[in-house]
Amino acid sequence: MAMLVALVLALCATMARAAVVEHNFTVGGMNISQLCMDSVIYTANEQMPGPTIEATEGDTVVVHVVNDSPYPLSLHWHGIFQLLSGWADGAHMITECPIQPSGNFTYRFNITGQEGTLWWHAHSSLLRATVYGALIIKPRNGTDGYPYKAPYGEIPITLGEWWNKNVDDVEKDAHLTGLGPEVSDALTINGKPGDQTSCRGAGIFEVEVEYNQTYLLRIINAAVNVELFFKVSGHNFTVVAVDASYTEPYATDVIVIAPGQTVDALMTTSATPEGRYYMAANVFESKTVQIRFNNGTVTGIVTYKGAANGTAPSMPAMPAPTDVVAAGRFYWSLRGLVRPVDPPLPTTVDHSMLVEFGVDQEPCAPDQTRCGGFALVAFMNRNSFQFPKNASLLQASFDGVPGVYTEDFPSSPPPLPGIRKATAVKRVNHSDVVEVVLQSRAYSSALGTENHPIHLHGFNFFVLAQGLGAFDPNATYNLVNPRVRNTVIVPGGGWTVIRFVANNPGMWFMHCHLDAHLPLGLAMVFEVLNGPAPNILPPPPEDFPKCY
Ligand code: C2O
C-alpha cells in the first residue's frame, strides 16, 4: 500500500510538471548593422539567434508562427521525434507546404523520451542562415536528471554563418550558376562575428563566469555549409552529450561540430583568476580538391569575474582548417552512455540498405542562365531528390493523392550509371529496424569528395561503425556503446553505418545538412506506415498550411 501511494504520488508529481511551453514567432524583416554594413535580414522576433525554446522532457511545445516575410516558410524542430505529430516536423514539401507570406500556422508537439540540446531552423531556402535558435530540453527531475554533476551555469553557443547579401539571392545565384552558394562572409557566435574581422567594432559575444566553477556549454552548429573547430583559450572540455544523447565523458581541448549537430560540453573555469579568454571557431575544410572557403575566425570572450577592464584576452591555438586528424579523432572517439532508461540497440535488422551518394557534374539546365560548362548535381543511389511542387509528401500519402512520389527508392545502388531526378521514398512498416550503410563516393575527379553531415528527421540512430574508402563488410560494429545522434559525418569517400527503429508513422527526410547539397538532390525520404493502434498518425491540424 505504501508503495502504491508513493507510486501514485510520484506519478502525480511527474504529470503536474508536464507543462505547455508557448511561443509566438513572427518571422519578418529586421534592420541590422553587421560587418560595417547595414542590411535587412529575416529573423524570428527580430533576434538572431532567434528565441531559445526551453522545455522539460514531457512538455508540450506550441509555437504560433506568423510569416511576415516575403518568402514561403516552414520551421523545423531539428532532432525532435515528433511522435504521432509528423505534421509539425516543418520539412518544406516533405511534411508540409510552407506557410505563405502573411500566413500563419501553429506548430504543436510533445517532447517525449529525449533531453539535451537541440535547435530549430527555417527549412525552406537559405533562410535558415538567419532564422534559427536553440531548443533546450531539461530532464524531468531537473538538474538531478543529468548523468553528471549539475553544472553551476549554462552557456549557449550557437555557431552561425553570415552573408553580406540577401540569403535568398545567394540561393538563387547558386542555382543560376549551377555551382552552389558563394562562400559566406563571416562566422558568428550567438549572431556576432567577433573582433578578428576587418570591420572594427563588429559585435562580439561576451560572457562573464565565476572562477573555479563548472559550466555546461550547449554548442550548436547552425552554420549553413561548414564544419567547425571550437576552442576556448586556457580551457579544456568534457563532452557529455551530442545531439541530445548522452555520451561517455570525453576529454578534449577542441570541439568539432558539423552543421546540424550539437555538443554539450562541461568546462571548468580554473584558468588564471580574473583573466579573459577568447573562445574561437574556424572552418574545418574536408574537401579533397582545393577550393575557396571561409578562412575567417569568429571570436567571443569569456571574462572571469573581477577581471580588470581592458585585460587583453588570450587566443587559443586553432587547428589548421585541413586538420583531418583532429576532426576524425573527435568524431570517431565518442561513445554513447548506456543507461537502462534509454531505448536499447535493436539486435535484428529488417531492412539492410547500402546508400551511395555524392556530388557530380551535369550539363547546365536551360534555366541556369549564368551556368558555364557544367552544373552540380547530387544524389543518393542515383536518385537526385526532387521536391514535389504541389503537395507535401505527407499530405499526398495521407489523402491518397497519386503522382506526387514513387515508392521505389532503391535499397542498394542500381547497376546502371544514369542519374534519375525523382521524388522516391523508401517505405517501411511501423517498428521495422533499418540499417543503412552510408557510402560517400567521388563521382567526378574535378570535384573530389568532402565530409557530408547526414541528418535523419524524426529519429535518433545508433552509429555502429565508420571507415575510409569502400565499406568493409567485415568491419567491427560497436554493438556495446555506440553513440546516438541525429546527424552524422560520413567521411569524404568513406562510410558510416547507422541503425534506427522506425517507430513513428510519417514522412521522414534524410539529407545532407550542408545546405548547398539539398537543392542539388542529396536526400531521400523514409515513409513509415501506421502501426497497430495507437501508433496511427492523426489528421493534420485545422490550420495546416494548404497545398491544394
Ligand atoms: Cu536541421 Cu532537415 O534539418
Automatic annotation (TrEMBL):
Superkingdom to which the source organism belongs: Eukaryota
Species the sequence originates in: Triticum aestivum (Wheat)
Pfam family, one: Cu-oxidase
Coiled coil: none
InterPro entries on file: Cu-oxidase-like_N (IPR011707), Cu-oxidase_2nd (IPR001117), Cu-oxidase_C (IPR011706), Cu-oxidase_fam (IPR045087), Cu_oxidase_Cu_BS (IPR002355), Cupredoxin (IPR008972), CuRO_1_LCC (IPR034288), CuRO_2_LCC (IPR034285)
Function description: Lignin degradation and detoxification of lignin-derived products.
Gene that encodes it: LOC123079767
A Gene Ontology term for the protein's cellular component: apoplast
Molecular function, one GO term: hydroquinone:oxygen oxidoreductase activity
Signal peptide range: 1-18
Cell compartment(s), UniProt: Secreted, Extracellular space, Apoplast
Catalytic activity entry: 4 hydroquinone + O2 = 4 benzosemiquinone + 2 H2O
Cofactor note: Binds 4 Cu cations per monomer.
Cofactor: Cu cation
Root EC class: oxidoreductase
Protein name, as recorded: Laccase
